[in-house]
Amino acid sequence: MSEFCEFTVDSLNNCGDDFPIAGLANMYIAPVRQLDPAVTVFSAVNHDITALGLQNAGSFMKIEGKVSTKDLATENAKDGGGNVFNITANAMIPNLDTVTSFALKEYGKQKVVAIIELFEKDSATGNRKAIVIGLNNVMGIDAGATLVYNPGVEAEQGGVNGYALVFTATQGETPRFFKGALTIKDGATTAVVNLG
C-alpha cells in the first residue's frame, strides 16, 4: 500500500460566477434493493456514477418539491478509526392528498436511493448536475437512505399545506455525481432524463 496519494489538482475560481443559481431541483427515488449491480457503474477516475439500472425494468419516481424548500447537508465524522458521511436532504411536497400520502407510506417502508437534481448545469453537456445519496462505492447498497415524511397544515395565511420529506443516509464517501440517463415514471408511462 502506498504511503500517500500525491495532490495534483488545484481548485481555482477562474471566471467564476459570483451569483450562481444554486439549490436543489427534482428528486428521483427508487428502492435501493431494486438496483441492478450488473448495470450500476462507478467511475474509476472521477467521483461519479455513470449508470444506474433497476431490476424488473423498474423506473425512478419523480418528486417535485416546492422551490426554496429543499436543502442538503453533509457532515463528515471521523471516529473509531472510520470515516463516514452523514447526509440529510429535505424537501416539501405541496398539497395534501390521499394518493401522495399512500405512496409516501409505501416509499417509507424501505431504504431508497435518491438522485438529487441541481439547478446548476454541467458546462460540457448542458444537462443539470445531480448527486446520489443512499449508494456509494464503499458501502454499496448497504448505505441506503431512509425516508421520513410528515403531513402538515399551518393555521396561517400562506402556511404549510403539504408533506415535509427528510432523507437521511450514512455513507462511506461523499455523495457522488450522477452522469447519465435515468428512466423515470412519467404518468402512466416512462420517460428518460439526462443528468450530468
Main β-sheet, spatial strand arrangement: 2-3-11-8-7-1-4
The total of beta strands comes to 13
In DSSP terms (H or I, runs of 4 or more residues), the helix count works out at 1
Helix and strand run: EEEEEEHEEEEEEE
Largest sheet: 7 strands, mixed
The low-confidence runs, each spanning 5 or more residues with pLDDT under 50, are none
First and last CA, distance: 33 Å
Descriptive key words:
single chain; 196 residues; mainly beta; seven-stranded mixed beta sheet; four-stranded antiparallel beta sheet; 1 helix; 5% helix
Explain what you see:
This protein has 196 residues and is mainly beta. Helix content is 5%, strand content 45%. It contains 1 helix and 13 strands. The strands form 3 sheets. The chain has a 7-stranded mixed sheet with strand order 2-3-11-8-7-1-4, with no helix packed on it. Strands 5-6-10-9 form a 4-stranded antiparallel sheet, with helices on one face. Strands 12-13 form a two-stranded antiparallel ribbon. The protein is globular and about 60 Å long. The chain starts with 23 loop residues before the first strand and ends with a strand.
